[in-house]
Amino acid sequence: MKLVIPLAGFGTRMRPHTWTRPKPLLPLAGKAMLGHILERFRDLPVEEYVFITGWLGDQVEEYVREHYDIPAKFVEQKERLGQAHAFWLAREHMQGPLFTLFVDTLFDDVDFSKLVDNQDLDGVIFTKQVDDPRRFGVVETGADGRATRLIEKPESMDNKDVLIGLYYFREGEKLAAACNNLIERQIQTKGEYYLADAITLMIQEGANFQVRTVGVWEDTGKPETTFITHRYILEHGYDNSAEATRPGVVIIPPVNIHPEAVVERSVVGPYVSIHKGAKVEDCILRDTVIDEDTEIKAVLLEESLVGRSVKADGRFRRFNVGDHSTEIL
Length: 329
Known about the structure:
The chain is of the alpha/beta class. The protein has two domains: 2-232, Spore Coat Polysaccharide Biosynthesis Protein SpsA, Chain A; 240-313, UDP N-Acetylglucosamine Acyltransferase, domain 1 (3 Solenoid). Helix content is 19%, strand content 31%. The chain contains six helices and 23 strands. Strands 5-4-1-6-11-8-12 form a seven-stranded mixed β-sheet, with helices on both faces. The model has no long low-confidence stretch (mean pLDDT 91).
């Protein structure tokens, strides 16, 4: 079994952080988002990991080789021609059963059973029901429960079972062939070759795709959803508040504070991550991520992402304010 992860995008919705780092390496609760994703496959017999990189891809390769002892291959997508184009570039690595996952997808409570041994099953499309499906993709199914087609960014609100970016294919070669077919026939959606269109081609040629719903799906595609994902991670195994106590510091769980971070005279939490080498003094923080080697002093932060090696020095204020006054700071 293989795991193919395309992560060649620019991550424009997460700028300014992604000017200097690819989105999958942005930290949440003590490790890069890519690390949290790889954890979801730790109990599966993955024999090879294929990373399709692009923007700042050398950093992805460095991170994987430094933190994981896994059989990894790296493929570079130099032109941003779409998801299916990325898979086509990795075609020499796409043999046999494989999973593929988009890198801003975090999932839990998922059924991976009876996949490889089911010879009647060509693949599985994993979905999650949401209130508004229009900025996602959806899958349509027939009366027999088989997928009939995938639609990117539907205009209708009728189908709320959206694609979360997690798929299983029994034969990776057939996915590669479908991507090649898509490119040869110039089938594009909004100027790009979409994986959804490649899967629809496979279905039209008789492939049997099943739909399975995941219990948990969190998204890190943009800052507002990243904070929700950060909360989820801290609530599910990454709260180290019991070990993170420091004199003169009030900690409100859940938080994740690296042992080599310095925190003094501050209120931290809930939902705060402070990473290795960071220094926090005289601050009040909640719903905030402080990256490595950053120093902040005398600031109050909420729903904030603070990058690496940042220095921020605020100041406390003194007031002598009479009745019925209004002050705006």
